[in-house]
Amino acid sequence: MPLTHKQWYYKGLKDGIPIGLGYFAVALAMGIAARNAGLTAIQATVTSLLINASAGQYVGFTLLAARAGLLEVALMEAVSNARYLLMSCALSQKLPTDTPLWQRLVLGFDITDEVFGVSISVPGKLDPYYTFGAMTTSIPGWALGTFLGVVLGNALPAALVSALGVGLYGMFMAVFVPAARKDPVVLGLVAVSFAASYLVETLPLFAALSAGARIILLTVTLSLAAAILFPVKEDAYAA
Questions:
Q1: Would you list the DSSP string of 71-132?
Q2: 3 by DSSP, 3-state: which?
Q3: In whole angstroms, what separates CA 194 from the centre of its chain?
Q4: DSSP H or E segment with residue 13
């Protein structure tokens, strides 16, 4: 018997709890960066509620601290957050064709790396209410962590903030490790992506590219290669 929207929402709430906890830990450091840029706790919290992107917010706060112009900030935000366009396009392939526009817009509002990871791993078609549930428990964690980071300032030891942030990476690995264990193709692609990411990060050829541009380059290249070499059958996302 298919799950109802309500059941999918509650499942998303549960799966979003560890995301929210990870976001809270990482956002403490983000709040410190916002404080150093001259933002108040309310300003930084509203920013976290509207953006939900660690790289994008850090770039924005750094530019604000450097008194950059609004056009510069807008351009850099577009570059650092461009990867979410790719995630949204991929996630749209899992949605039922009759998904209302307002639901698609809400999904696009908070397609973070981790929310995308748990949503794309749902077997079959994606009920948007699952992602809505994950958003409900993850967004507040990011905003609250940012708020406390501003309020506490530099009172927290840097080592503690860094240690808390490691938990988010461990949680994100838990998203793709089960799939990699079941499918050797996924396992191979994960290994190749790790190696390619290291090379792009260290080779002088790519030194001029920003972190966001490198992520987009790798995502497009590896996804295109995987789609050509290992195409997914038409009924893979069947309900």
A1: HHHHHHHHHHTTHHHHHHHHHHTTS-TT--HHHHHHHHHT--HHHHHHHHTSSSSPPHHHHH
A2: coil
A3: 17
A4: helix 5-36
Where do we find the tokens 């924005």? 60
Distance CA 144, CA 92 (A): 29
pLDDT digits (tens, 9 = 90+) for 5-54: 999 999 999 999 989 988 888 888 888 888 888 899 999 999 999 888 87
Nearest to 237 by CA among 77, 111, 120, 83: 120
| CA distance to 25, 46, 73, 75, 117, per residue, from 69 (Å) | 30, 20, 6, 10, 34
User: Nearest to residue 222, comparing CAs of 193, 191, 186?
Assistant: 193
CA–CA dist 106, 131 (Å, integer): 9
Ramachandran category for residue 111: left, alpha or beta (phi over 0 → left; psi -120 to 50 → alpha)? beta
Read off the tokens for 194.
Answer: 């790790």
For residue 162, the one-letter residue type is S
Share of the chain above pLDDT 70, in %: 88
